[in-house]
Amino acid sequence: MASPSLILTLSQDVRDLIKVLAVFQELGVSLKHIESRQSRSDPAAKRDYFLDCGFPQVSSEQQQQTLDQLITQLKEISSGVTIPSSPISGPESLSSKDGKKESEVPWFPRTIAELYKCCTNLHKFGHELTSDQPGYGDKAYEERRKFIADLAYSHKYGNPISRVQYTEDEIKTWGVVFRAQTALYPTKACKEYREQLPKVFEACNYKEDNIPQLEDISRYLRSRTGWQLWPVVGWISPRDFLACLAFRVFPTSQYIRHSSSPFFTPEPDICHEVMGHVPMFCDPTLAQFSQQIGLASLGLSDEWIDKLATLYWFTVEVGLCQENGKPKVYGASLLSSNRELVRCLSDEVEHKEFDISQALVQSYPDVDLQPVLFVAQSLTDMRDRMIEFTKSIPRSFGLKYDPYTQSIEVLDSCRAVEEYARDIHYEMGVLQDALKRQTVYS
């Protein structure tokens, strides 16, 4: 069973928080992360607490019993307990090879409508800042983040993404980032990025004095590689994030970094998303690879989710690749941060040849400058190695994405595999006919 996160609503009496911690200690449940904010239900008298839980290494049945006890006791202390992301099984159960129910397979979305739930499950609070984040204490900036976060909260599946009327100060911050990054791309970005960037700029109205809108970018991406953007409020869990990739959906922030720190931000913002990720999602190689990693993550244990998230970090987020004997950048976190882009190809950073086994055990800061980066021979080489790695995942069923219905097909029986084989046979017929026509009419 995946360890859940909880959101508690408590009074502002510190004794209630002490009681909560005592319950965790009594049941042997650890706290991986804790945050608080004013309660939406009663901001004057209560606070909401986000708790990322860690359970002992025991059976799923014992973990579920502990979770049930935890929730029961917390309800006696708090005025509300919710689980923003639940690993419980969905309406369709998977079967193991011996025909028994696969109770150990965590729930995962089968349709894009179910996927929408993943984008609304917060892993960390979005618009609220911690004391170590740029902009903390700037009331106007915090209110602005909350306003933009509310737009994402109100987004409904199937509706256009709300357009943000960015302020003059926000456009100035964007302009600072835009000028600094575009000056470096010709010498530091990989050729795939350089090829896509001018096309994106023109189609989506990227300008120094204009922040592009997610809806316009999403439409463009769908026309190029079938990807689309969905607005999110904050960080969603690695499991939910990877599930989005399986559907060619990229969760995206709309607020912008604080003006005091334009060249580095510890969290994703609009600059990171549209300057870093979007051009690379127009490249067929990275677009295909990202979806394959997402498909590979569905139904996996927490251990395997952590492995895939780590590999995603060292590739799509902070990856380098060789180009004419020199390293170039394709990672979005590097491409969207001036402080990173200036130093990432220099001797200040340790460069290692891309090796999956090494990357899996390499520690990294996700909110600070990167000390170690991996260099692939090429984007294609990285993709092929990663897809080969996913074949080692211990899973008793296969998965296939249907772009027509935007759904996931589970290949867990001979009948399902035979139906898939018939689809492939039809496509092979189309290919053979095309080759024959070239021979006859050329």
Outline the structure in words:
- This protein is α/β, with parallel strands linked by helices and 442 residues long.
- It is 47% helix and 14% strand.
- The strands form 4 sheets. Strands 2-3-1-4 form a 4-stranded antiparallel β-sheet, covered by helices on one side. It has a 4-stranded mixed β-sheet with strand order 8-7-10-9.
- α8 (238-246) links the parallel β5 (228-231) and β6.
- α10 (284-297) packs antiparallel against α11 (302-317).
- It starts with a strand and ends with a helix.
- Residues 85-93 and 95-103 have low confidence and may be disordered.
Tell me the distance between the termini: 59 Å
Strand order of the largest sheet: 2-3-1-4
Q: What is the ordering of alpha helices and beta strands?
A: EHEEHEHHHHHEHEHHHEEHHEHEHEEH
Beta fraction: 5-15%
Largest sheet: 4 strands, antiparallel
Q: Mean pLDDT score, rounded?
A: 87
Low-confidence parts, pLDDT < 50 over ≥5 residues? Answer: 85-93, 95-103
**Class by helix and strand content?**
alpha/beta
Short key terms for the protein model shown above:
single chain, 442 residues, alpha/beta, four-stranded antiparallel β-sheet, 16 helices, 12 strands
SSE layout:
Elements (H helix, E strand, L loop, with lengths): L4 E7 L2 H14 L2 E9 L7 E9 L5 H18 L2 E3 L29 H8 L19 H15 L14 H21 L2 H14 L9 H11 L3 E4 L6 H9 L2 E4 L17 H12 L2 H14 L4 H16 L2 E4 L2 E4 L2 H4 L2 H6 L6 E4 L2 H6 L10 E5 L2 H12 L7 E5 L4 E5 L2 H28 L1
Parallel strand pairs: 5-6, 7-10, 9-10
Antiparallel strand pairs: 1-3, 1-4, 2-3, 7-8, 11-12
Helix pairs in contact: 1-2, 8-10, 10-11, 10-15
